[in-house]
Design brief:
heterodimer, A: alpha/beta, Rossmann fold, two-stranded antiparallel sheet, 28 helices, 9 strands, about 60% helix, B: alpha+beta, Ribosomal Protein S8, Chain: A, domain 1, GMP Synthetase, Chain A, domain 3, four-stranded antiparallel β-sheet, elongated
């Protein structure tokens, strides 16, 4: 669940012609995708299956003298074709598109009793196959046992045991792929009848001396507390709370370093560039705007470190389990929680994760709710606004007030997403029973450093790419809009501007720019919230990506006071109206902005994904519309409330 | 899912030396060991129709020979169903005890299987030379001839493996 999902996959070209194709198939969490990545290295290409919106992952690897194509099919527990993911797997197996030459079945060796039936159904398609058994180290550690060669004889196909993150297993698989021509196939296909299948599974496992792993004793002890209805829930909130405190406490010093660096760079640029407009462009648009967003890199990276640790340690699955009961109140099942949880990184992977939901109504309800979860793009906006509102050292008891408010914002996002899901499921009048909810509860373990590092690397990379592409482009366009049309000295003289003051001149240009016209055009909408055109232009531009709001304010501030943009923001005054001369970023305006960003669907990528996943513009239009109305209303209420108490 | 009736746990395995045989692994002790000459219906019908030609029962498997004109991939599912039914009525089988014949097949199968693979991977070879009164005589050749580990292989691997499948085995000796 990295925000790299937000961008279409890019990488090397993969040609299919004349190459042998192998499909990886298995249950979710069976280590299938890890294996796929280990096999195909960096040559992964992401696309879509025709007609449906299930992601298609292709890779390639060299085996022997030739290159083979690998396809990572979506992880599924069954072949019943009730969800789009399962449909894709069934289609591939039955050769609707073009059946692969061979199949690599990946099963978690610790849960074989359950997954062997799945294997049987795959084998019935009569496509040459091999079985890769994952987590055999885990099986052994927990007192389980399997005789892989006996299993191979019983199944009639080759079996390769593998442990997570071990080179040897990968090499063995490659060697087996090279021997494709001589793969054995089952002498008789496994039975289809349920009772006979159960008997077959039992017979095969007993021949392979299969001993299922004992429940991890350490895990059982920890779970007695962490899955406890009372203590577990309490711990859950403490963990979540610590999560957000850490993001502030640890990231702040790193952030300062980046700010210092950009200030230094700005000074250098100013001194070096003698062409007036170019200097302004570099220091305002590039360093003030883009740099202003890049400052949040430590916080984004830290967010993903924490998520990777929660996932790697096994706590994330418990959190989903604890939340299953809460989800049921909203009419959803536990699987929807995984989607909502992914949305903490970015709503896009969250929306894509709804593909595992078998019910179309559940999918829609979850999709309508997911964009409300506080995503990593909201983080810079919140951090900036909270930073304007509260002093860094302010404390409430032992807690940092900034962290407290941020935690509150996350809580607000989660609660409102649940409410929306509940309303959406009620409106669509659910019919039919809840489908079975499977979820792996893995044993606890120390998170693997490599997994944490690569998760952070990928998400930090995606953030930097986003900053240097869409955010940079929007920022440049904005700079042009903010600085044009240029005014001549004569014009300014005529307008009564003090032409001896640099600041007064740039303020005049700003006030009469194209951007100002746009901002002023939407003023009637936002005036009740206390926003002036400078905030409005930030809101309009943040449609491209929420972080652009920060970049825009950074530019506006840099134009007024290039040396201290943050102070400039704090010192910004209301330009006209009854409150003229008061600080623009008053507590009520900040509260309104926080509410607005919490609820509004200010993200065109999300709108695009909603369009793709639902197949029409209807649902993205509904989502954008309802979220805007809620955002405006909540912002208005918040502003009024704050005005009342202050 | 259909109503789950507990079915006798079986699965088919190849016999390395002969593609017309399937070794159906069954729960140990379901049937007495020996050569079956009478089968309960509907399994009997397959013999009447000459689809199946012979059978053999070891401690935890039933061997069935298919007619050379038939194929396991097409007849297999029907035979499986008939066999499951037949296994539910062990009293209706007529089985002649014939330890030596069963032991010969088991020993041959083991020698062609993983234990044999280990021997062959070390440059040796082992062939069954005789079976007499639950004593198996194996002839080693190639690298095995002067191998100091031969006694270990004989007792700890070969003998153990054969005994697991044929508890009446007395010992394995080198010819």
């Amino acid at each position: 669940m990295s925000s790299s999902h937000c961008e279409p996959g890019t990488s090397t070209q993969i040609t299919l012609a004349g190459k042998r194709r192998f499909a990886l198939i298995g249950n979710p969490n069976s280590g299938k995708s890890t294996l796929f990545n280990a096999l195909s290295g960096l040559s992964v290409k992401t696309g879509n299956y025709p007609g449906v919106t299930v992601a298609k992952h292709l890779g390639q690897t060299r085996v022997g003298d030739s290159t083979v194509i690998l396809e990572d099919l979506p992880g599924t527990y069954s072949l019943d074709a009730i969800s789009p993911d399962e449909q894709v797997v069934v289609d591939v197996l039955s050769g609707v598109d073009e059946a692969p030459d061979g199949i690599i079945i990946v099963l978690d060796s610790t849960t074989l009793q359950r997954s062997l039936g799945f294997l049987a159904r795959v084998l019935r398609h009569n496509i040459p196959a091999i079985l890769v058994l994952t987590f055999t180290d885990d099986l052994q550690r927990r007192g389980g046992h399997i005789d892989a060669s006996a299993l191979s004889r019983a199944l009639g196909i080759r079996v390769i045991p593998a442990t997570s993150g071990e080179r040897q297993g990968v090499n063995k698989i490659k060697a087996t792929l090279a021997e494709f021509g001589s793969w054995e196939s089952p002498v008789i296909a496994p039975p289809a009848d349920a009772a006979q299948l159960t008997a077959w599974t039992e017979s095969v496992l007993s021949t392979a001396s299969y001993q299922p792993p004992e429940p991890d004793r350490r895990t059982a002890k920890i779970d007695a507390v962490l899955l406890h209805p009372v203590w577990g829930t309490l711990v859950f909130f403490i963990v979540m709370f610590a999560f957000f405190q850490t993001i502030f406490a640890v990231a702040a010093p790193m952030q300062e370093q980046i700010e210092v660096f950009f200030a230094w760079l700005g000074a250098k640029a100013d001194a070096a560039i003698t062409i007036g407009w170019l200097g302004a462009f570099v220091s305002e648009a590039l360093l003030g705007g883009v740099g202003g967003v890049l400052v949040f890199l430590p916080q984004i990276a830290l967010l993903f470190v924490m998520i990777a640790i929660l996932e790697g340690s096994g706590y994330m699955a418990r959190a989903a389990f604890l939340m299953d009961r809460v989800m049921a109140k909203a009419g959803l099942e536990g699987r929807a929680f995984v989607s909502l949880l992914s949305s903490v990184a970015c709503a896009i992977p969250g929306i894509m994760a709804t593909r595992s939901l078998p019910s179309a109504k559940d999918r829609l309800a979850t999709m309508m709710a997911a964009p409300l979860i506080t995503c990593s793009a909201r983080l810079p906006v919140y951090v900036l606004l909270i930073g304007l509102l509260v002093d860094p050292d302010e404390r409430f008891g032992p807690f940092n007030v900034r962290g407290l408010i941020l935690f509150g914002m996350y809580l607000l996002g989660a609660v409102s997403a649940m409410l929306v899901a509940a309303i959406a499921t009620r409106l669509s009048r659910r019919s039919g029973a809840l489908l079975p909810f499977y979820m792996e509860i893995p044993p606890y373990q120390v998170p693997k450093l490599q997994a944490v590092v690569s998760a952070v690397w990928a998400s930090a990379g995606a953030f930097v790419r986003k900053v240097t592409s869409i955010i940079m482009v929007t920022t440049i366009v904005l700079w042009l809009l903010l600085n044009f049309p240029q005014r001549s000295l004569a014009e300014m003289d005529a307008a009564g501007v003090d032409t001896s003051s640099e600041t007064a001149m740039s303020a005049y240009v700003l006030d009469n720019s194209y951007a100002a016209s746009v901002g002023k055009a939407v003023e009637p909408v936002f005036a009740p919230l206390g926003f002036d055109w400078r905030i409005n232009i930030g809101i309009v531009s943040s449609l491209a990506a929420r972080e652009v709001f920060v970049a825009t304010l950074g530019q506006v501030a840099a134009a007024e006071n290039p040396d201290e943009p943050l102070t400039a923001l704090q010192d910004m005054k209301v330009l006209n109206g009854p409150d003229k001369g008061d600080p623009l970023f008053s507590p009520s305006v900040i509260a309104a902005l926080l509410m607005f960003f919490a609820f509004a669907l200010q993200c065109m990528s999300t709108v695009g994904v909603l369009r793709r996943e639902t197949g029409s513009w209807r649902w993205p239009a509904i989502a954008f519309g309802y979220m805007f109305v809620v955002a405006w209303t909540m912002a208005f209420l918040a502003a009024s409330l704050v005005r009342l108490v202050t | 899912m259909s109503a789950t009736v507990t079915s006798i746990a079986i699965h088919p395995e190849r016999v390395a030396s002969n593609s017309s045989i399937i070794r159906w692994v069954i729960p140990a002790g379901t049937l007495p060991v020996g050569l079956p000459i009478g089968f309960p219906s509907p399994l009997a019908q397959f013999f009447t129709d000459r689809v199946l030609t012979a059978g053999l029962v070891e401690d935890s498997a039933v061997w069935l020979w298919i007619h050379p004109d038939e194929s396991w991939s097409t007849q297999g599912p029907a035979v499986r169903e008939a066999l499951v039914e037949a296994l539910a009525a062990p009293d209706h089988w007529v089985i002649e005890p014939c330890d030596d014949a069963v032991l010969r097949h088991v020993a041959q199968d083991v020698l062609a299987g993983p234990v044999g693979d280990v021997i062959r991977s070390h440059g040796g070879d082992a062939a069954l030379s005789s079976v007499n009164g639950n004593v198996v005589e194996v002839e080693f050749s190639g690298a095995c001839s002067h191998c100091p580990a031969i006694s270990f292989t004989l007792h700890n691997r070969l003998e153990k493996e054969i005994r697991a499948r044929h508890p009446h085995l007395e010992r394995v000796v080198s010819a």
